[in-house]
Design a protein that fits this description.
Elements (H helix, E strand, L loop, with lengths): L1 H7 L5 E5 L3 E6 L3 E7 L2 E4 L14 H5 L8 E4 L2 E2 L2 E2 L2 H16 L8 E6 L5 H14 L3 E6 H8 L10 E6 L4 E7 L2 E8 L3 H16 L1 E2 L2 H11 L10 E8 L5 E7 H24 L3 H10 L1 E4 L8 H9 L3 E3 L6 H11 L1 H4 L6 E4 L1
Parallel strand pairs: 1-8, 8-9, 10-16, 16-17
Antiparallel strand pairs: 1-2, 2-3, 4-5, 6-7, 9-18, 10-11, 11-12, 13-14, 14-15
Amino acid sequence: MIFDRIIGLFSADMGIDLGTANTLVYVRGQGIVLSEPSVVAVSKDTGRVLLDGMAVGDIAKKMLGKTPGSIVAVRPMRTGVIADFDITEAMLSYFIRRVHGRGSFIRPRIVIAIPSGITAVEKRAVLSSAARAGARKVHLIEEPMAAAIGAGLPIDEPTASLIVDVGGGTTEVAVISLADIACSQSIRVAGDNLDTAIIEYMKRTYSLLIGEQTAERIKIEIGSACPMKEELEMEVGGRDLIAGLPRTTTVTSQEIRDALGETVQAMIETIKRTLEKTEPELSADLVHNGITMCGGGSLLKGLPSVIAQATGLKVSVANDPMTCVARGTGVFLDHLDEWGGTIDITDDEM
C-alpha cells in the first residue's frame, strides 16, 4: 500500500466516466481534461480503429452517417455497457495515452464509473479493457454513487440523498445514505432512446428518415417534457422514404414532446419504483432533501418539473450536470485510501 502511494506520486491517476454518449476523463490535480463522444471510426477492410487519422471522439462523431464505404463510425458502448470489446479497448487506450502522455513510465491508477445494474461479466469486460489499455490498477464505482459525490451531496451523512442520473444509455436512480446505496433502480432507457423516439416519429409521421445527429439536435433545440410558454418549431432535413430524395419538413415542439412521452414516462416510473422500495425513515428525509438530477438527459426542457409533479418532491439539477460522474470519480480518486473500504468498489490488481 505504501509502495503504491509512492508510485502514485509519479503517475497521472485518472477517473473515467465511460459513457454511452460521451467519455470524460478527470486527472488528479488537474480536473476534467478530456470530454469527447464515445465514437470511433473503424476501417471496414481491416476492422481496425483509424487512430492514425485521429478518428476518435469529436472527429469520429462528425462522421456518423456520413462515412464512405470503406469506413464506419461506431459507438462501442451501448446501454451503458461494452458492446464491442476490441473497439472499446482501443478507444480507452487512445484516451489514456492522450491524457497520460508518453513521458511517464508509470502506468496510472484508474477509477471507472459503471451502471449499477450491470452484470459481473460486464464488470469484468470493463476491468479487462482498462487493464489492457494501460492501467496499473482499476477501481469500479457505481455511477449513481459517483454522480452523488460529483454533485456534492452529503453521501456519508445519516440522511437520504436521491440522485437521478440520466445518461446516454441508462437512467440510474439511487437513494444514498451513510456512504452506501440504500435502494436503487437502473434501466437501459435514457438519452439515446429519446433520439430513437424522434427518429421513429419522423419516419412514421412524415415518411422522412433522419440520422442520429439530426435527432439529437432536434431534442436539444425543441425537445421538452412538458408544455412550454412559447412553443417552438424547426426545419428538419432528411431522405424521403417514398421518393428516396432529399426533403425538408417543419416540426413543432409539441409534436416532439408527444414523441418523447413514452420514454419520459419510463424514467418517471423508475423513480417511483425506487421511492416505493425506500425505507420510511429515508423517505422522510427525501421530503426535505428532494431529488438531485444530473447527466445530459437532465437538461431536457421541463423534465425536472414533470418529475416534481409526479413525485411531489422538489427537484433540482446539479451544477454542470454532464460532468458530475467524472468529477465524482476524481473526488473518489483523491480519497481512495479513505473511502476504499467504505464505498463498495470492485478492483483488480494490475
